[in-house]
Structure formats: C-alpha cells, structure tokens
Predict the structure of Calcium-transporting ATPase.
Amino acid sequence: MESYLEERFGGVGSKNSSEEALRRWRRLCSVVKNPKRRFRFTANLEKRGEAEAIKHANHVRPPLPPSLPPSLSSPAVPRHLLVPPGSARALGAPPPGIWACGFTPCLAAVVANRCQLTQAHTAGISQEKLRVAVLVSKAALQFIQGNCVPTGNTAWTYHDVGIFLTPGLSLRSEYVVPEEVKAAGFQICADELGAIVEGHDSKKLIIHGGVDGIAEKLATSKTDGITTDEDSIKRRQDIYGINKFTESEVRSFWVFVWEALQDTTLIILAVCAFVSLVVGIAMEGWPKGAHDGLGIVASILLVVFVTATSDYRQSLQFKDLDKEKKKIQVQVTRNGFRQRLSIYDLLPGDVVHLAIGDQVPADGLFISGFSLLINESSLTGESEPVAVNEDNPFLLSGTKVQDGSCQMLVTTVGMRTQWGKLMATLSEGGDDETPLQVKLNGVATIIGQIGLFFAVITFIVLSQGLFRNKYHEGLLLSWSADEALELLEHFAIAVTIVVVAVPEGLPLAVTLSLAFAMKKMMNDKALVRHLAACETMGSATTICSDKTGTLTTNHMTVVKACICGNIKEVNGPQNASKLCSELPEVVIKTLLESIFNNTGGEVVFNQDGKYQILGTPTEAALLEFALALGGDFKVKRDETKIVKVEPFNSTKKRMSVILELPGGGLRAHCKGASEIVLAACDKFMDETGSVHPLDRTTSDKLNGIIDSFAGEALRTLCLAYREMEEGFSIMEHIPSQGYTCIGIVGIKDPVRPGVRESVATCRAAGIMVRMVTGDNVNTAKAIARECGILTEDGIAIEGPEFREKKLDELLELVPKIQVMARSSPLDKHTLVKHLRTAFSDVVAVTGDGTNDAPALHEADIGLAMGIAGTEVAKESADVIILDDNFSTIVTVAKWGRSVYINIQKFVQFQLTVNVVALLVNFSSACFTGSAPLTAVQLLWVNMIMDTLGALALATEPPNDDLMKREPVGRTGKFITNVMWRNILGMSFYQFFVMWYLQTQGKNFFGLEDSDTDIVLNTIIFNSFVFCQVFNEISSREMEKINVLKGMMSNYVFMAVLTSTVIFQFIMVQFLGEFANTTPLTVHQWLASVLLGLAGMPIAVAIKLIPVGSS
C-alpha cells in the first residue's frame, strides 16, 4: 500500500508544492462521502488564483515617472513636467506673450523652453503644446516664483492632469476637501491619500505641498508624530479607518451542522429512514411502526452533532492561531516619544521607523532615511527591489525592507490599501494540505473503494434470497410492505457498510491532531505558521541553529575592550569611567563619535524621562558602553551630519557611515567582524592618541587579542575610521580599505540555561545539531563546546573555506560539520541543500535576519526567532520560536513526533474497526443470509472509530520517551510493518470472537426463547463495541506493553472512553426499539466486557511477534 500511496498521492511535499500536485490528488479521491468536510482544511486553489491575478494587476500598472534630481526636489516643480535627458530642444527665446520677467531674457528662455505648458486663451481659440524639460536649480525657481507674472489674458495649465500654473508658478488643483474631513480638523480625505500613494502620483503630491504638506493636512508632525488624546484618535479613526483587513467571518456552529449533513451516505440513510417511517407507520401504526426509521434518524443526528461539535472546536482553535500569526509590532513616534505599537493600531499621520527586514505596515510616504531598498514581490510578484527616497517617496503596505532604514509617514490604512484587498483574498486561500493529509486521503480512497465493493456484494447476497423467491413465485413486480421494508433494510445495511468502510475521519484526524498540537505549542512558546511543519518536525534528522539569541541569551554587554592597544576590563560603570580617565581625549571623542553615529540603534527618552536603548542586542551593548564612558547620544549626533549609511548585513559583515564634520570635510566610520575590519586598516591609534602605520607586529598583536577574546566565548567587534579625501562624492560606495583602527571590543553573550541538556536530548533522539553563525570561529567553537554541540570527531569550518570546497570534498565533509563560523546566508543555504538532497536529511533551520530567508525557504522546516527575527524571516518560516530559545525547538520536535505517532495510532485503530466491521457483516450475509449489525448500530460504531476515536488517540500529549527513538526521516513509511502486525492480529481476534458468537453464541449463553436472535445480535453488538473500547486503550502504544501509563492524566481520552461506555449501556438497556437491541443480563454484560478485555493480553502477545521496523 505504501508504494501505491507514494506513487499516486506522494507528489505533495511539506512546503512549496506545485498547484498541479495539489490538484492531482484531489482528482484521485474517487470515494468521498462529504467533500465539504473532507476538503475543508485544504488550500482553496481558486481563491489563490484570484490573489495571483491581483498581484499581476499590481505588477503591470503604468511605469513610474522619472526620478527628480536632488536639485529639483522643490514642491513647486511637478515631476511629470520633467522630460528625460536629451529630449529637450535647444534653448531659444520664449514664445511671445508668455510672461514678462524681472530678470534676464536668457533665464526666462530657459524656463519657457524647459516647461511643458499649454497656453489656453480665455477666448478658447487656440492651444499650443510645448514639450520641454526643467533643468534649473531650486534657487532659480524660487526666484522666478517671486518675479514672474503672466501677460495678457493667459492662464497656464498642465494639459492632462488638470494642474494649473498660476502666477508665480504655484500649483493648484480642483481637489475640494470634504466638509466632514474639515470638521474633524484635517485637510485631506482618505481617498485622495490613497490615490497619491497607491497611484505613485507625484503631481498630486506636489500639489498638496509634498510630504510636508501632507503631514500638515493630516494634523501631524514629522518629528513628534500624532497626539494621542482619545478624541483625536477617535476622529482619525472615523475619517481614515483602522489598519485591519477584512477577514472571513467566524462560521457559526450551525454551519458545521449543515456541512456534516452534506454526507452522501447519511443523506441516503435519511431517505431510507423516511421510507421506513412511511411504510412502518402505514403497516403497524404509530409509534411501533416508526421505531426503525426514528432509530436511524436519531443515529444520523447524533453523528452529525458530534461531528459538527468537533469541527467547530477545531475552527475556533485555528482562528485563535491565525490571530497570533498576525501580531506584528513596529516602532512609532507619538507625542514625541518612541514606542512599540501593534500594526493594527496605526493611523494616518503616524511616524513609523523601519529597518532592514521590517514589513511596511501601511501605505505611506518616505520622510528620511538611508539606502532604502523595498522588495515589492509580495504585492506585485516582481523580485527586483525598488529604491525609495525623496524622489520616489511611495511606500506600499505589505512590502518588505530589503536594505537600509527610514522614517515613514502613514497615509492609508486597512482595506484602503492594495495589500488589504490582497490579504482579504489570500486569507481565503488557506494553507496547503500536509503530506499526511494527502496520504490519508489516499488510504481513505483505497479502503472506500474496497468498502463500496463489499457493500454492493453484501446487498446482493442479502437480497438474492428475496429476489429468488419472488422470481419462483412469479411475483417480481408485486411487493408487499414487509418485503419492501426487508429490501430497504438490506439497502440501509449496505449503505451503512460504506459509512463505516470509508474512513472519512482519517485525513480529518490529521487536522484535529495538528490543531490540538498547535494550540499546545503556542503555550510552549512556538507559533506554527504552516500546518505541515508540525508533522514534518517529527521527522527532523538535523537542526541547523544560529548561535546568537538561540543558543545564547541575547543579553549582551561589553566586558573587555582593547583601545589604543591596551586591554581593559569594562564590565561595570566604575571600570568604564576608569578606562575613560586613562585614555586621551581625542581617542574618547573618536570612539564616541564612532559608536553613536555608526549604529542602527538609538538612545531615546520615554515618557517617564528615562533613557531607553533601541536596536539589536549588539548595538545596545555598544551604546550602553558609550554611555558608561560619559557620552551623550543626542549631543554627539548633533555635532556632525550623517550623509551616507551602508547598513550591516551578513554578507559584508560590517556597517559604515560617512559624516560631514563641523569644520568641513568628510569622515568614514566602520565597524563589524573584527578580522574583516582589521584587515581593512592600515593605521592604528596608540595610547597617546597618535596615528601610526599598522605594521606586521601590531597587526599580529591585535589578531592575537581577537583570538584571545574569542577563546573566552566573547563576540568581537572592531571599530575604525578614515578621513575622506577632497572630491569624494556621496554617490560613490564607502571605501573598504585605508582605515585607522580605534579599538576592539569583546561582548559577552551567555549560553542559555538548559541548552546543553536540550542538545543532549536531540543527540539521544537521533537529531544532529549544527551551529551556523556569522561569528569568529574561535568564539563559535567555545560556545559550541559549552553547549555540547562540538564533539571530538566533529569539524568546525569557516564560511570562506567551505565555499572553496569542490563537490566531492563537500560530500565527505558535510556529515562531519558541527560548527560553521563566519558563514554567509549563501553558505547556510548550500549546507541545507546538500543535507536535504545528498544525504536525504529532514532539515530544520533557524534564522532571524532578512538574508536567512533563502535557507528558511529551502529547509524542510524553517524556524524564525520571534524576538530577534525580522518580519521577512518570520514570513519565510514555518514555525516562529517566540522566546528565541533552543529548548523550545526541541519541544517543537517532541510535539512533531507526538502528532506523527498519534495519527499512526488512530490509523491503526480505525483500520482495525474497518476490517472487522466489513468482514463480520459480509461473511454473515454470505453464510447466514442476515447481518448481525444493523444500520443504527453501525452508525454508532462509525462514530466511536471516527470522531470519538480521533479525539481520544489523536490528542495524546507527548512524553519524554518520544525523544529516545530514532527519527522517521525522509524515507520512513507511514503505515509500518508494526502497524500492519497489530491491525491484522487484532482484526483476526475480533473477527474470531464475532464469528464464534454468531455460530456458537446461542449454545454458549443458553439462549432458547423466541427472542434468541435479537438477544444474540445484541450480545454480538455489545461485544464488538467493547472490543473497540479496549482496542482503543491497546492502541495508545504500538510497541510498548504498558499502555496504561499516563492514561488517567489524559482527560480527553478518559472522557471519550467513559462517554462511549455510558452511551453503550443506555443504547442496549433503554433504546431497544430504536437501536434494535434488547436489555442484557449481568452475566451477558460481563461476558461482553470480558471478551473485549481479552483483546488486551492478545494485543500484548501480538506485540511480541518480531517484525521489521519499516
């Protein structure tokens, strides 16, 4: 069966499955009782198609206008009045009668020939279009604004957008502010803002006064943000809306009831029940004639309501998890104070601070920033990043910051944005179905086809005697009511066999188990974004983990520093002030200038007047060190002007800035990986503050200090500066050589408590843990040894060396790699790819940075950090580790194994019931001409094995023993030999019991009365149910003997067992007329229970039969 399933249903992977693979398995599901229920938790491919269409529409929108040169960024000049270079005609005299200017005709000629204008006479007789380009400076334009006046009856219009050039080249439009907007204290409406930003409409932006004008009209400040008094916030929300997307409504319980009623077999049974009611009442009157029909109806309703309750609870769990997935916080300035805010609380007028890896939370305009590159692929499908700056200031919600940083003015929120419309469609697309869901749909299809075949044969065998008698009597066309009811009963039994035989609950058990696990994992600080990750993590054979923040605490402090060649302990304010007193003033000044300016962090004051450090833990550690040295962040930043920034990324492993100094001139500052920055230095500062050439001896000494710091498990950073030559343009790249070394700092980041034990747990579970870090190799090795990752036979390698290896060398090297230091994102991606393809490992990868996205995408399970991780990394990940703790990753692996094994247990249990129910009714029909289990009874059995069985077995919590077995890996079979052994063994026992009771039951129980048949059938039914009850307990462990361990603490399991037994008792003793049963004696009850209980020692004996593991 496994190879058949793999061939036909094996095309769907744990992630990134093709649409064809998703469609193919759906086509192969030929026997489906209830499509609405079966395919509820699968991807809605039609909705996804709609989302792709929206992306395509965004991608093919008209191209943006040419960028405005920096010298022409005045709000007075519309960008669309510019013409590409080379298209302007030669300078000439201005057309007659245009204007009279209070300056030279030459400049007037430049302006007239380089502005695209239409002369519209008030008489409306003629129009003349002049296509030209504006290449005059801002100062000249301002001068013109003060001196140019039109002559005669002339007005100047921009012909295609309704822009008027009024006297003095000012711009105005026909836009009228709605009264309700004015009344609320604003000067621009939401639709106009949306048209400007979403349409990239530079002309309208200029009309409204540029970013400054928009801020003014939104009653906000570009520096202090909006005011947060309740009335102001309420007015903003009323006018501009809130930053939330339309989501599909929570479906009510009755919707799930209606969907459960869509089951084809239940509908057929309902029709049978209706006919039975009509014929029965006509024959035997009310209420006796209605018992059979009402029994079927009651059973159908019970199945429907139990099913609907289970499905409804699942939907609520998924809804809660969806809310957690969408919780994103951003840095916002309000009332002049920086604060973290949920994206759902953003309003137009807010000033948002964006950095590399952030998601743009709303539509807005660029205020200020450096080297900003935006990835718009999530919105347009276009992977090429877009540069955003003063000339192209438009930022769209849902896009990602690929590089750089900026401040942004929020203009449009929620469903007014293109992202809002896209998200509303995407949210209906759903998650991809998981490989297990697809495989179990295959199992359900195969067994359903077999069940359908047996049901048809059973109906033929049961009915052939009736038809034969009618044929011999020559009465084939004449049927009495009793004969019709008998035929209907045979048909109902056949349909009910299909109900039992098609294990509709198999694929849904996966969803139930995953929903339960995801909810519990949320409590354990792991947020599962994709269903498949939960089950795939149970098969993981390798974890490639980051060091910083995952294996370590991410609480960093500078504890050692080598400034001017001298090593000092600086772990404390007293040591820092002592260091400050020992160093020359010029060194301290340069050091503080470097730390405070060349940083991605900030020192801000909160509403309590206390300073707060914002930024990554590394940046925070450096800023804390600088403050301890007596530095003042704001004062130091105000002394110079930052003119260029090249942010840190894991490829360059350094960050650089260029400062404009107070006395003129430019200075570059650089910091980053110690050996890389030191290699870029050719000078150093000595203890007097003097600058000297960096000779070989000093270089070796500094490299030795780096190694000694790294050997103490310290993260090392080197700080350097360089005076820039005259003539350097900020359009050029910041130089990579020629720096002067200021010093080296050693940052302590302690290993997290419990990591060593977690790594040992992974090792015992057959999971290899590898550390992949951008840190110095000696630091990485020291931390890896402390964590128990690096062993005697393991290898630590640096990224540059790994890159140089040939394929045959890599194949030999990769299995031994336990530490990779100074790695680039490409190195991590390559390692993951080789592990997955060449060695068939199931790989889990952790990541927190934007550049980790390719490796997270390539891995079988991407694990993003919830605290340190960027939004780009989180979006590429399958699971978000909310506390950034490696121990949580081990918990995820444990839950993954629990899900996988729970579903195996349920499959084993359900297939056993399927096999026995089929064989009992089919064999009985063939040999005795009747079926011992009626339609009502089979419906009850179906509920025990389907919904209730899934609840009991698919929601077992994990135990520590799960991490003592080898992982399933990529090639492991789902239905193993162990499962087949248990299924066939228990099926044989149960079938033997049922067959013995059917043939020898009357003698065994001494039944001699007229109602012996119904008593015997009741005993068979009761024994069959108790066989399933005790088999459910035996199924808790597939190989272990002790199946009772932890059972009493599993409240769901105990509740299911208890309710099953209680309802079985009620059905047998009190619902005889409806359930075709009769009350049993104590002796008969005891026999039924003991026959079921005997299955447990039989199950133990079966488990002792040796079989192969696969």
About this structure: Residues 279 and 1001 are 33 Å apart (CA to CA). The chain has five domains: 173-244+344-423, 253-325, 435-514+901-1104, 526-552+752-884, 557-725+736-746.
